[in-house]
Amino acid sequence: MARFTGFDEVFSALYVDFDNIYTRFLEADPEAAKAFGLTPYRWVRWIENHALRILYGEGVRRRILKRTCYLNPQRYQEFRNSFIRSAFQVVDCPPLTSRGKTSTDIHLVMDCMDDLSHSTHFDEFIILSGDADFTPLLIRLQEHARRTLVLSVGYSSPAYTAAASWRIREDWFLQQALKDERDDDNNDMPAGGREPRLFLGARRDDEEDEEDGPSGNR
Predict the structure, then answer these.
(1) What is the mean pLDDT of residues 128-149?
(2) Does pLDDT of 206 surpass 50?
(3) Which among 106, 82, 77 has a CA at the least distance from the CA of 92?
(4) pLDDT tens column, 108-130
(5) Which of 60, 86, 117, 153 gets the most CB atoms within 10 Å of its CB?
(6) 8-state DSSP, 176
């Protein structure tokens, strides 16, 4: 499987659609949802430290230089300070309609487009959301030769996962990034010592994983 080579450090920007991810985790595992909201520093460290060898080779460091969380303060105010303490910029996205529609989507898209011309050249755009509305954004980022990682929770639209460079598997995120705080922080390997398949290429959920690493999308 081909790797992206020539990197010593990978500069990344992280965008979190909190309402989307938290709602899904609350359905799947309430304790994991709570960990996601209250200890973001832990899963940020997990993202920074994992799958680098698989994707880029040995000795590469991922640095998440920008962290932004989009959150509905009327529903999730209790988690706001946790993200601020973990060096996130929190963008409040309260409901704008009687049906509870927020402005998260447009804020996230505008920030990504602005960051394409940021003085820091971001190599990766990491989007934590399962919202297929971001598919055109992923395609645009790809056109600018940027790699995209998505955490697609619940049902993943084939178009959405195909537009991303890599997909972070929901089950591994739940098991590894949101593991019980009583576990050793360095105990991130499954039984047997084999590095887990944390990142899959942009493939349908019903396809089998033939090997670790990206699928070759560029």
Answers:
(1) 95
(2) no
(3) 77
(4) 999 999 999 999 999 999 999 99
(5) 153
(6) I
Which pLDDT value is given to residue 183? 52
Cα–Cα distance measured from residue 56 to residue 204, given in angstroms and rounded to the nearest whole number: 23
Q: Which residues contact 130 (CB under 8 A, 6 or more apart)?
A: 20, 21, 24, 150, 151, 152, 153, 154, 155, 156, 160
Identify the CA nearest to 217 among candidates 197, 201, 199, 200.
201
Whether residue 10 contacts residue 146, with contact meaning beta carbons closer than 8 Å, is answered with: no
Amino acid at residue number 55: L
Q: Are 67 and 115 in contact (CB under 8 A)?
A: no
- Over the Cα atoms of the chain, what is R_g? 17
Q: Whole-angstrom Cα distance, residue 198 to residue 167?
A: 9
